[in-house]
Amino acid sequence: MSDNLFWLTDAQMEGLSAFFPKSRGRARVDDRRVLSGIVFVNRNGLRWRDASAAYGPSKTLYNRWVRWSRMGVFARILVALAEAEQDVSTIMIDATHLKTHRTASSLRGQKGGAAASSAGPRVA
User: Fold this and answer.
1) Model pTM?
2) What one-character DSSP code corresponds to residue 64?
């Protein structure tokens, strides 16, 4: 297995297993492999089909992500992790919420945006 792949530890899997839904019918494929693949894809911003073959079929990763997301499994995991870590000295900002359209930079409604207003006063 490649050194740059992400794998959940035994302790992490033990803590997460309480959130897993009960298996109905057929046994699920290896939870560690699939969840490690889901974390790897999300952490690196990859497409599902770009996941390493070590994590199994990309369709399996995607299907588990969709099914467990709809069931609220990942939401419950994230809430529990956030509640467990009460370090208020760390503040995180997701940069995707700070992006604006280029036309949002206009000052006082002037055409041309900030470039036109920063060029100095207009001379007639």
Assistant:
1) 0.65
2) H
